[in-house]
Amino acid sequence: MHTVSDYFGSLVFDDRVMRATLSADVYASLRKTIDEGLPLDSGVANAVAQAMKDWAVAHGATHFTHWFQPLTGITAEKHDSFISSSPDGSVIMEFSGKELIKGEPDASSFPSGGLRATFEARGYTAWDPTSYAFIKGKTLCIPTAFCSYGGQALDKKTPLLRSMEVLSRQALRILRLFGNTSARRVVSSVGPEQEYFLITREMYEKRPDLRFTGRTLFGARPPKGQELDDHYFGVIKPAVAAFMEDLNDELWKLGILAKTEHNEVAPAQHELAPIYTTTNIATDHNQLTMEIMQKVAARHGLVCLLHEKPFAGVNGSGKHNNWSIATDSGQNLLSPGETPYENAQFLLFLCAVIKAVDDYQDLLRLSVATAGNDHRLGANEAPPAVISMFLGDELNAVLEAIETDTPYAGTKRTLMKLGVDVLPRFRRDTTDRNRTSPFAFTGNKFEFRMLGSSNSIACANIMLNSAVAESLRIYADRLEKAEDFETALHDMIKKTIHDHRRIIFNGNGYDEAWIREATKERGLSNYRTTADCMPHLLDEKNVSMLTSLGVFSIDELVSRRDIMLENYCKSVEIEARTMTDMARTMIAPAIESYTAHLAGAASAKMTVTPDLMCRYESGLVRKLSVLVDDIAEKADALDSALVKLSEAEDILQESAMVRDSLLPAMTALRLPCDQAERLTARSFWPFPTYGDLLFGVS
Ligand code: ADP
Ligand code: MG
Known about the structure:
By secondary structure, this protein is α+β, with helices and mostly antiparallel strands. It folds into three domains: 4-154, Roll (Ubiquitin-like (UB roll)); 163-552, Glutamine synthetase/guanido kinase, catalytic domain (Creatine Kinase, Chain A, domain 2, 2-Layer Sandwich), CATH 3.30.590; 567-694, Four Helix Bundle (Hemerythrin (Met), subunit A).
């Protein structure tokens, strides 16, 4: 009998395989590289490459690739085969340490935002030994970072690794102040919960909007949506269960700890959560998970939609980024401890996160910004674009007591003195189910809920790690100089709570009144769209923090802002072109056929019964004719808005035009089309409806 433990990780060159296939010396130096980031000498690299190749070939691999994450958000790979010719005409399978460590993809067509002139066509990929190599199909995939020859990062992994490094460095300074001399690293971990929709491939194929843009650009609401909440945690349908089973198998073979799966709130929506792991690996795993979801769906006659808002008026798909930081010995720094001293340390790390989220709201917001996620934030149970933090009643009461020097009701003693009093154990507040909070404390970790389902989790974690590292840096600078550590600590925690109280909000983030309070009274930022938030990447305070920590260079920041804005413009422009095309070549002709059919029916009836009024037909023909005129007009207006974009002087201006004129013109075109759908006979409508799509999987 084949059990999961037999094949879990069977396609991964993991620690078990390394131990079994490498000599003790080689294994020890590789381990040092993985654990401490020490460089690998070429002899060791050759030995590792040899073992990796033999293992991969034994598992059916013929090719290898450096697997990396360019700024497009997807992963890239270029396959090379292992074969080399031999003088006697046979082939041998070869793979050198050099090929393992460095690759040179012809990368001129990956976006670089001006960092790498196209004549200078090649960047290089560099092995990331902290993420295990794995086999996909017949290819050995080697996780790599992707840089230009000048050393500028062209990918998401490089800054993510840098951000993990700076967070570790600053957190260690704090731990030393608390007397911890043994920790050697502090590691951030993430468990990303991934939402997605499954629809049938047959229906997907019939909708150009889904095929070209990943979301529906038209579609009237079905009579039944998600109002009954009967899908959430409901019984999983057989076709979906078969998909999930197959998916789990594939993920487990790749060592991905897929753990839970359930139906989500919207019909056809589901969720997969892995067990959390080191951020870097969690990021690689999440990218792989998204890719494999789509592959496995195809095998089952399904399509997995990862778009943030595939259906208007129905819940969108997000990705909850459960984040915590722990020492290399496994002490979770966001978990309240057993002793008063541990509690003070916990409160300091908690404050570092509070300060980070308040000081860098804009960076967190823009780290999740895409055209798709703009539709999701603030709609149908997704958190709003305003960032706030949920701490729960108990923890909130503790902070309040500290800030105001008043007794905390939960302890027997009178005043809370840090480092003296024991904090209560925080129960997981039931209200953490409140999905409207963008950033919630859930007992021993934070859950950042603004990520879109298709986002790479790298971006959010780069910003989160960096911002928290910056808070810790400021704390450590002060505390290292303090004459009386405990007093300084107490004052600093108090001051943080006082200065950053505005970011803490335990109510309903979805309430209009909250958005008003947040922006008007608390001065929190509310960047509704990608075009609004992305320019702030280059705000002085952000550039200064990210460059002084060494997470990004200024050139890298400029290029990233430009690439993100370009992606935004391009995605919306493709949507706009798809809309005019569908409106003109599918929707309007369908309405015409149907009105002709109605008119024909009416005149046939009147031939037989001349005194008939045919009020039904003539009324409908009139309404549909008005709508089809409107559709033609709105399609022309959308075209003009598209043409006008060429007048933009730069990407900033273009993104503002996309936001201010293109998107509204798209909404204007959708309206009469959706109205016409409600009036047109189903047999005439040119593509599957929302009802077909959402309830089509059995
Ligand atoms: P839910 O949020 O649905 O109640 P859980 O809290 O069990 O579910 O976990 C959600 C995700 O958070 C999972 O991926 C889990 O592995 C992850 N997680 C749990 N503990 C931590 C932690 N200390 N750090 C980071 N992620 C964690
Ligand atoms: Mg959750």
